[in-house]
Amino acid sequence: MDARLNLFGNPLLGTFLKHLNSAGKVIGDSSLPAATQELVKIRASQINGCGFCTDMHTKDATKAGETSTRLNLVAVWREATVFTDAERAALELAEQGTRIADAAGGVTDEAWANAAKYYDEEQLAALVSIIAVINTYNRLNVIVQQPAGDYQPGQFG
């Protein structure tokens, strides 16, 4: 399977991705726990059907020490006992933020208040930003049908 466009060879997309990667670095350098960042990226990517990002972020999380049990249960986090209350709040925010078109009014006040119990203002800003950024990456990859499975941790820096 070949992608419809070469995301890495197209000059316009290359410039766009450079800026998007810079935004991702700002989030990565925030005080939002790295494990939470990966869980959010994985869950949004699952919802959006982005195989490339799901592959990338599960492999990056594994390399960072995440357990296979937790990774295997991200899609069913509501029923799983392996996530903290804070991670569950972040996953709920990620789901609602990703499914904006499916939810009347977008993210509920309840989901926001729950996340605010566990995360300070900088971390909430990072959560909102990471949800926006991963959804952008997901859409790029799904639209161009970017193949999944060959990603190697650290491949992009």
Number of strands: 0
Helical coverage, percent range? 55-70%
Shape: globular
**Structural class designation:** mainly alpha
**Main beta sheet: strand number and arrangement?**
none
* Average of the residue pLDDT scores: 95
Distance N to C terminus: 25 Å
Count of individual helical segments: 7
Instruction: Note the run of SSEs as H and E.
Output: HHHHHHH
Question: What is Rg?
Answer: 15 Å
- Low-pLDDT sequence parts: none
Proportion of strand residues: under 5%
Task: Describe what this molecule looks like in 3D.
The protein has 157 residues and is an all-alpha fold. It starts with 10 loop residues before the first helix and ends in a 13-residue tail after the last helix. The protein has helices at 11-28, 34-48, 51-63, 68-72, 85-98, 109-118, 121-144. The protein is built from 7 helices and no strands. Helix 2 packs parallel to helix 5.
Task: Name the features.
mainly alpha
Present the secondary structure layout.
Elements: H1 11-28, H2 34-48, H3 51-63, H4 68-72, H5 85-98, H6 109-118, H7 121-144
Helix pairs in contact: 1-7, 2-3, 2-5, 2-7, 5-6, 5-7
Concise overview:
With 157 residues, the protein is mainly α. It contains seven helices and no strands.
